[in-house]
Amino acid sequence: MGKKRSGEGSNRTRMAAKFLGVSVLSGAVLAGLALPAVGAFGLVAKGSVEGFDEIPASMKTPPLSQRTTILDAEGGEIAKVYSRDRTVVPLNEISPYMRKAIVAIEDARFYEHGAIDLKGVLRAVNKNAQSGGVSEGASTLTQQYIKNIFVEEAGDDPDKVAVATQQTLGRKVKELKYAIQVEKELGKDRILNNYLNITFFGQQSYGVEAASQRYFSKRAKDLTLAESAMLAGIVQSPSRYDPVNAPNEAVKRRNTVLQRMAELKAITPEEAAAAKAEPLKLKVTRPKSGCITAVSGAGFFCDYVREVFLKDPVFGKTKEARAKRWNEGGMTIRTTLDPQTQKSVQKSITDHVYQSDSVATAISIVQPGTGKVLGMGQSRPYGFGDHQTQINLSADKNRGGSNYGFQTGSTFKPILAAAALEEGISPNKSYSSPYQMPYPDAVDTCTGTWKNSGGEMVSNENRSEAGPYGMREATAKSVNTYFIQMIGDIGTCPVTKMAEKLGLKPASGADMDQVPSIALGTQGMSPLTMASAYAAFANGGTYCTPVLITSATGPNGKSLPVPKTKCSRAMSEQTADTVNTLLKGVVEDGTGKEAGLSGRDSAGKTGTTDGRKAAWFVGYTPNMAGAVWVGGPGKDVEMENITIGGQYHDKVYGGDTPGPIWRDAMAGALEGKEAPSFDTVAVGGGERGDAGKGDTDKDGTAGNGRGRNKPGNGGNKPGGNKPGGGAGGRHNQPGQGQDGGR
């Protein structure tokens, strides 16, 4: 026996202690310490970590985040969305090879030790002492599972994730105590099952089922030996062993797993050799998450569902609670989206407006009486590339829409007409309606009186448009001066109150301006808001708030509460029937003739803003209401001498571009559905008689009866306080009328 050198034993002890300390501080071996040793190492010293006994005995395990599936009204899938791509599966739906592989490479003595593996700790301490650093850890699968729970609970908050993964003494002590708890409560098989469902396998896949689908496009229960070994090898370092981006490293790691399985007699040497000889055989399914993958152009409908979930208190009292539930996912959300309507919306969009056009279009269709949103689409698809956007052009700002919405032009005039009828104005009321006139000297508002101190003028589109007119012809021809005289009589307050009853509010969330030019559509609105308001005319004067979600179930299949539509009377049935009569005339003999539907009653109104920066058609049948907007999606575009969808326009009007888009979308959506008729009333044509065919004069010759909306800076900026309501308003010059015309 050789001589023992002086100090050799103590040096080895100090070296072991040194590397044990290194391992402890790195979180590599503390979890393997026996409980009595906790106090011996001073782990409860003041200022280091909380006392072991002070850690709660029961750990609250957060639900695993999973995919949420969004369905249409018929149960078809619109899209899958998730914070983390995961599908939880029971142990018997995971390949036995996978179970053996993960145990072999991560914790070979998993079924032999308790929450801690003392042999593993001693082995790690010895190896780390020999290497002079931390080359091997000793965390058991149970401890790794606990760590993953901490990470899952942190969600996507980078600060919380950092805390959950930091290599500190305190975290490892807590991890140890909870590992003891779950070993006692769950047992080995459930721990293994939970671990395989929670752990990260790279490429955005969490849990073995998602990983199996990602890399091999198959269920986890069908994984082969070689495939299982590859997935098990990824866990240690998902980026280093990523088989997509680092296939050679993945093969080496897979073979290491296979070798370890053979050494442990989990497989035979022959099986290991055969599996090692196999190529990776990847069959990658790329991640498909989120509304960008939605079918039939329903990306923005999908995004609106998310916005509703995150902001409606029915899904949680606080925004944090709602976000947490959404990120946890695992839900099935059934929506109001009608597949037939959505396909028709998308086809009409692609037929009339190209994605690459300088302008865009947006359509929303709702169901009168229920508020159900049946279709929603736009020519700029959901995405991040060229001619794509994440702004929902159909929605208000607080639901992912543009900051200010889009000025509505003459599509707002029916709101004024409804308010006037409710105030007792006769539908046969005639006004002088000159080609050009000053705004009234004084107009009553909700807060006082608006005065035309600057002598602001308003004009019609064409000099031939000079009254007197009655309400029917003035509506059909969209005569500006008629409606300005009307608002002068009743004031702005009844109009803004009617708008409020119809759910109309500027898309920015601001209050409506108390100025007479609101009659000409100076306020920026969204298509969904306008469609929902017009649906009240079809519904006998009762307005219903829009809804998109009909049911939702959680991961456990339990039903969740969902928002319900709220219906309230906005006007009398007589008023609604009168507006139906007026707007039916618009599509039969007025500016909206190009939007008229064949074989069924329809009604609607055109609108074109000053400078032709926005054009609208909003219309309805007794069973559907829809709004179409066309304009610059991010900045103002003056739609003159412009090509849209391959068709040249010298000037764009609400009737000639949005009108046909609305007609084709609605025709397809209504195909095969009943065709009920409107209830109408007798309305006189006024002193000048009925409107001619389309924009024609009384003798049938083509006329220019197309008003344009008040001046303004398009749909992307709010209106101002002048009668024209927007920047650059040349509303006092001949030919620069404010009506939304054809």
TrEMBL record:
InterPro entries: Beta-lactam/transpept-like, Glyco_trans_51, Glycosyltr_51/Transpeptidase, Lysozyme-like_dom_sf, PBP_transglycosylase, PCN-bd_Tpept. GO terms for molecular function: penicillin binding; peptidoglycan glycosyltransferase activity; serine-type D-Ala-D-Ala carboxypeptidase activity. Residues 702-729 have a biased composition (Gly residues). One of its GO terms (cellular component) is outer membrane-bounded periplasmic space. Residues 77-261 form the Glycosyl transferase family domain. In the C-terminal section; belongs to the transpeptidase family. This is Penicillin-binding protein. Residues 687-700 have a biased composition (Basic and acidic residues). GO terms for biological process: cell wall organization; peptidoglycan biosynthetic process; proteolysis; regulation of cell shape. It comes from Streptosporangium nondiastaticum. Residues 590-610, 676-742 are annotated as: Disordered. Pfam families: Transgly, Transpeptidase. Residues 363-630 form the Penicillin-binding protein transpeptidase domain. Keywords: Carboxypeptidase, Cell shape, Cell wall biogenesis/degradation, Glycosyltransferase, Hydrolase, Multifunctional enzyme, Peptidoglycan synthesis, Protease, Transferase. It catalyses: Preferential cleavage: (Ac)2-L-Lys-D-Ala-|-D-Ala. Also transpeptidation of peptidyl-alanyl moieties that are N-acyl substituents of D-alanine; [GlcNAc-(1->4)-Mur2Ac(oyl-L-Ala-gamma-D-Glu-L-Lys-D-Ala-D-Ala)](n)-di-trans,octa-cis-undecaprenyl diphosphate + beta-D-GlcNAc-(1->4)-Mur2Ac(oyl-L-Ala-gamma-D-Glu-L-Lys-D-Ala-D-Ala)-di-trans,octa-cis-undecaprenyl diphosphate = [GlcNAc-(1->4)-Mur2Ac(oyl-L-Ala-gamma-D-Glu-L-Lys-D-Ala-D-Ala)](n+1)-di-trans,octa-cis-undecaprenyl diphosphate + di-trans,octa-cis-undecaprenyl diphosphate + H(+). Coiled coil: none annotated.
